[in-house]
Amino acid sequence: MARTNGTVQPGDGHALTPYRWWQLFTRSLFHLDLTGPAGARQTWSVDVRHGGDDDGEVRARLYVDGLHHARATLPAAFPVPGGTIEVAASGYGLRRIQYVAADGSARQLVPDPASGEGRRAHLDRTRPALSRALALTSVGVLLVALVLGVPQIVEQLTQIPPVAQTIGVWVSPLRLPDALNISLVVATIAASTERGLRLRYSRVLDGGFFGGGE
């Protein structure tokens, strides 16, 4: 069972709002079809607004056939027929949203076609070569950011007085212009966002110095 943040709270029955194009990078919406206790087919949907609620907390909202059923802060685990829906976020989207059955098997929920994740999945199905190229480019950008960024971060850390007094100041052999550092940060954000749309996460690449962890 995944680590969870808080208690699952009951929903208020409001209707799931349609996905809008301007929410591509701020909202995740996934669906799962399950058979309910009475044998009827049900659609379970998970809606995550990455900007958080008024209190700053990012919550997953669970809907059944379009009606609000429950909510919980992330990471969350929602009991559903035959298993659990687990949801966890990273700094650039979701790192996991899966249905874990009672027998331990797991499968990812299906992204809404209008969502950023849905559009990225559509690109993967329709243009696999381009999709692979984008994926490899994202990894390459993050590796470059890691190699170029770590020495600069270490130098900054050794300039902290208690650290400097203990081990001395380490001077990085890499000196990047400010413009290049800014470009590197922008490229890293874009690469991490692309990986987030595919629910790819690595502690080293996506949760490191330039990435965003949970």
CATH C-level category of the largest domain: Mainly Beta
Overall structural domain count: 2
Q: What's the total helix number?
A: 4
Strand-pairing-aware structural class: alpha+beta
Q: Please give the order of strands in the largest beta sheet.
A: 1-5-4-3-2-10
Shape: elongated
- The total beta strand count reads 10
Question: Helix fraction?
Answer: 25-40%
> Biggest β-sheet: count, sense, barrel?
6 strands, antiparallel
The Cα radius of gyration reads 20 Å
End-to-end Cα distance, whole Å, is: 17 Å
Average predicted confidence as pLDDT: 87
CATH topology of the largest domain: Lipocalin
Keywords: Membrane, Transmembrane, Transmembrane helix
Transmembrane segments: 133-154
What would you say this structure looks like, in words?
The chain is elongated, with a radius of gyration of 20 Å. The protein has helices at residues 116-126, 128-158, 161-167, 178-197, and strands spanning 9-10, 27-35, 41-49, 59-64, 67-73, 76-80, 83-90, 93-101, 106-108, 110-111. It contains four helices and ten strands. With 214 residues, it is of the alpha+beta class. Strand 2 and strand 3 (41-49) form a beta hairpin. The strands form two sheets. Strands 1-5-4-3-2-10 form a six-stranded antiparallel β-sheet. The two termini are 17 Å apart. It has two domains: 9-111, Lipocalin (Beta Barrel), CATH 2.40.128; 127-197, no CATH class.
